[in-house]
Structure formats: structure tokens, C-alpha cells
Amino acid sequence: MWRFLRVDLKARKAYWQEVPPEEVAFGGRYRAGKVLLEREAYRVDPLSPENPLVFAVGPLAGTGFSNANRTSVGTRSPLTLGIKEANGGGTFGYALGQLKLAHLVLEGESPEWVVLRLTRSGEVHFDPAQDLLGLGNFEAARRLFAAYGQRIAFALLGPVGEYLGLLSGIAFSDIDGRPSRLAARGGVGAVMGRKRVKAIVVEVPGKAEVVDKPKVAEAIRRYAKLLREDPLVMQFYNAIGTMGMADFQNAFGGLPVRNFREGRLAPPEEFRMGGQYIAPINKSRGGKHTHACMPGCVIQCSNVIVDEKGEEVVSPLEYETIGLLGTNCGLNDPDQLARLNRLANDLGIDTIETGATLALLMEKGLAPWGDYAFMEAKLKALYTPSEEARLLAQGTARVGEALGLKRVPVIKRQAISAYDPRVVEATGITMMVTAQGADHTAGNAPRLETRAMKPEEILEASYTAQVNAAANDSLGLCVFGGSVTNKEVAFVVESVNAALGTALTPAFWRELGEGVLRLEHRFNHLAGFTHEDDRLPAFFYEEPVPPKGYTARFRPEDLGPLYERLHQEP
């Protein structure tokens, strides 16, 4: 039987409760949103002890079903002030699934810093965390393994989260033990820091329990086969990884360059910040360009980047980091970016928000574009909570306001992802309308050429992408398998039925996805958001972006058909 765990940090007590199979199916992002709405988190200060922090997995977590072990982290965001779900891969969701722990809710504030530890038998311990405070994530992870053994998974808070910096995410262990798979966005780490939880350590039982083991085993094999036969999965994600999107967007003209001033960093044949350039060099040095972040994943879109000596620098280097911490700051050296990425992972911070924030300092004239030494110094300063670090850690919107800047690329106070909304319009609409803030993962259509399409067709493409993303997130599935899962809905639902013993129909997929969007929209409405909060910053409407010369076309008043669907009761 699946269970959920409520932890009262102030009283240091834990309460287990059984969860019926039908409720487990509505997991991940759906469950996080449902808990937050039912507990009326929209009424509380995001950095108060009353703000719940939810960790939720999907119904196939703990099994070897490829890319089905992501963990959703939900809370009221101290960055956006709206609802937030940030999810990450790695081994933490796998461990929760093997414990049959559908979701975990942290309540209140611990009197002292703790490591929350869950044993294989379901015991909950509140261990002292004083010797971990102030450490970077890599050293903290080393000490966790030394203290608790190798058969653990963890969710870890970096030093920026300790002083409630809004750049902070929550790092999950990967299959090699790195603290490098971040639920990064929205300041979720600051909420964990407010609760004085340095880490959550879960002992991995090593065995998944499902209702129909033969059917689940066959589903695992069939899904792996479908992924291996899919051209997008194998020729793009598996071969190059997400950094291949940098090559595409640079050629397409939708890459963020120097605070979204341009859409192309260099002619495609001279571009050095994408997979076409980085992958062969990294492999020639002995690095890995096909690497799984979670158990059982056959997509293996992760990578391990090494330097000229063949020594590991960072894992992984992803497209969003290339776009925001790289080209958006004027960098054109991937080795420099990899080192900055390593620092960001050690600090436990969102590379999207961090890159957008650093670009504002360059926009202000505090350093030239592409000044690596300046960027490195600013990141290193974040280890210590000085007055300067505390300001920088507040993120793009607040730093932009403090600097008196007008060109601040945010929606709902969150930095826009690495897709210029003037060019990648369907994704731009998603980033406008989603309750999540400017988050491409809420519904991405990065390759869609929209200028020849009708407006209603672009809106529909964004909505469909949002529904599918929400369903995948709620089932704990990585969206990089979407070229299979979004077309094989009946198969995915039958796999869930085999695992849980439920009798869900294929209609469940759309019910799940649309239910998430309505829950989140309702939450933000109750938190005081209006459609005016969905508007892009003015410069996107006023400044044509080279090389295509486009300005943004869509405003909140153009999104009525989407709002009609979202306003329905969840």
C-alpha cells in the first residue's frame, strides 16, 4: 500500500497515512498543486513556516520504467509569489517510490537545522545538521554518504538556500552520487531553508512492489523499445543531449544573447556553444555524452563534461544553462561555462535565474559582456551571505528593480527561459500564461515556426504542449520522452493500471493534464494574480530581435481562448 508522510518539523513528529491507488495515479505536479490549494497556501507568506513544502512522485516511481522517477517539489514560491512546481531527476524519486511514499509534506520550522532521514522500515529521524552548514553541495554530499552509507538518495540544500536566497533550488543525487539534479526554479530551496532542513536522506530498499509484476516488466521492456526506435530520442537527446537545442536556436534566431538583445550569437558554422561543437571535443577528451541521471533511463540525455586533462568538471551541462548563464551573458567559451555550471551546482542555484541576474549587472555596465572573471567572482561571493550576496541571490526581477533597469526579462518575477518569445512564440505564450512563472517546461514547442500559422493555431499548440507537460510531470515522467509518451497515451495509462491495480481509461491523461493547469490557475487567482501579470516586458514588444527582426505579437488580451479553459473549476 502506498502512503503519504506529513512531517511536523516544529514538534519533530511524523505521521503516515495510507493513500488509495486512484490517488497515487494523480501524483507529482498534480498532487503538489492539490495539497497547496487544499491547505490554502496562497494565504501565507512564502517564507513563513506555514508555507508547506511538498515532494511528490508518480505512480511508476521506484521501477525501471524509463525516465519515470522524477520528483516534483511544490510550494508557494517566494520568487514569483504564486504556485510553484519544480522537478528534477536523479535517484530521490526512485527511492521514494521504492518506499511506496507517494508524497511527503514538510510543515512548520525545525528549532535547529536537521537532516531528515527515512529508513527502509519507515522510521523517521531528525539528525543534527550543524556540521553540514555552509558547505558546498559536493562536500555536503560526500559527508552524507560517509555518514549513512552508499545505498541512499538525498535532496540537499546548498549554502544559498541556508540564507534564504531566491536563486536556490533543491539538489537530488544522480546515479553516481553527484548532487547535480536540481529542482531549481522558483526559490524552492529558500522554503526548505526557512524550515531549517539541510537534507532529506532516504535509504533505498532496492525493490519495487507493483500489483501486476509481469505486466509492469513487459511495459518497461516495451517502453524502452519504443524510445530506442524514436528518431528524436536517439538522434537528438541520446546522441547530443539538450545542448543540441543551442545549435538549433542559434540558427533559428531564438537564442538569448546579451540580455535578449539578439537571437543569434554567431553564424552557425562558427557557433561554439552548442552540442555540435561541444560533444565531439568532450568525447575526444574522455567525457561522456550519453549518461543517465536516473535508474533505468534509456534516453540518457545527460553528460559528463571533462577538461583538457580528462578530469571531470560538471555533470550535466544543459541547454538552459548554455542559454542563460552562457550566451545571455555574452560567453562564447564552453569550458568557462562548464566551470561556472560546476560552481552553480555546488551552490545549489538555478542557472536560469542566476544567468539572467548576472546579465543585468553587465546591462548596467558593471562588467563587459562575456567577462568570465567577473561572473566567477560573483558566484563565489554567494557562498558567504554578505549584503551584496543577499541582493544578488534575490533574483532577476528584484535585482533589476534595485539597479533601476528597464530591460528586465521576467514574467511573474521569474526569469524568462532560453527561448526568445518574439521568435519561439508558442513557448512564449506558455511562459506568459502558466501559473508557474516564465517556465518553458510548462509547455515547450521550441521548433515550431509560427509566423505562417493562424493565431488560434499557435494558442492551441501552446495549450496542447501545456496539457502534455502537466500530465508527464504528474506521472513523474521526464518530458524528453514526450515524443513517445504523448503519442502512446493508452499504453502509458495501462502501465499505470498494471502498477497500481487501477482501471483508468486513456481519457485519464487529458483529465490529469488539464486538472493540473486549472488547479494552478485557481491558486494564482486566489493569490491575487490577474491576467495583466501575464504580459511580457515592454522591450519584447518594442525592440525587433535580430537576425529575424521580430517583435512580440501576443498580449494577455489575445489569450482569451486559453483563459476560458483555465478558468473552469479544477
Query: Percent helix among the residues?
Result: 25-40%
What's the helix count? 23
Strand content: 5-15%
> Sheet bearing the most strands, described?
6 strands, mixed
- How are the strands of the biggest sheet laid out side by side? 2-1-6-3-4-5
Low-confidence stretches: none
Which assembly state applies to the chains in this document? single chain
Calculate the terminal CA-CA distance, rounded to whole Å.
27 Å
How many extended strands? Answer: 17
What global shape is seen?
Answer: globular
Question: What characteristics describe this protein?
Answer:
single chain, globular, 23 helices, six-stranded mixed β-sheet, alpha+beta
Secondary structure blueprint with pairings:
Layout: E1 3-8, E2 13-18, H1 21-25, H2 28-38, E3 53-57, E4 71-76, E5 83-88, H3 92-98, E6 101-107, E7 114-118, E8 124-128, H4 137-148, E9 152-156, H5 159-162, E10 170-173, E11 179-183, H6 188-194, E12 197-203, H7 213-228, H8 231-237, H9 244-252, H10 275-284, E13 288-291, E14 302-306, E15 312-314, H11 319-326, H12 334-347, H13 351-363, H14 372-381, H15 387-392, H16 396-403, E16 410-411, E17 414-415, H17 425-433, H18 455-474, H19 482-485, H20 489-500, H21 507-526, H22 538-542, H23 560-566
Parallel strand pairs: 1-6, 7-12
Antiparallel strand pairs: 1-2, 3-4, 3-6, 4-5, 7-8, 9-10, 9-12, 10-11, 13-14, 14-15, 16-17
Helix pairs in contact: 2-18, 2-21, 7-20, 11-12, 11-13, 12-14, 13-16, 17-18, 18-21
